[in-house]
Design a protein that fits this description.
By secondary structure, the chain is mainly alpha-helical. The protein has one domain (1-98). Helix content is 73%, strand content 0%. It has six helices and no strands. It is extended. The chain starts with a helix and ends in a 14-residue tail after the last helix.
Amino acid sequence: CLATLIIMLVGDTYTLINYVSFINYLCYGVTIIGLIVLRWKKPKIFRPIKVNLLIPITYLAFWAFLLIFSLYSEPVVCGVGLIIILTGVPVFFLGVYWRNKPKCVNRLIESLTCWGQKLCFVVYPQCGSAEEE
């Protein structure tokens, strides 16, 4: 969100759309790769919708072509898109991977989460929130 705000202040909307489209297609491809890996490693998992593997493999072929073409034609845009994705790595390590956080860090993360949920009107009801304590 912060990177998007900075790009909107510095650049134009067309550039932001290029960054986001590259990021979207990269994430779509990784998702399809995950689907194929799960089909091979855990074939007995319940799947409400099951498709022939030819469909995701065909999609991946087109995806690889578009991604390689994007990297060839606009390497700077793709590089900035990758940098935008990598800005989430420290957030992941702070919020998810680091298990034994001090209580002050947990309270900060919970308050930022609550503030973001209220800002975006996506507050999920909880049984025992930090406000009640």
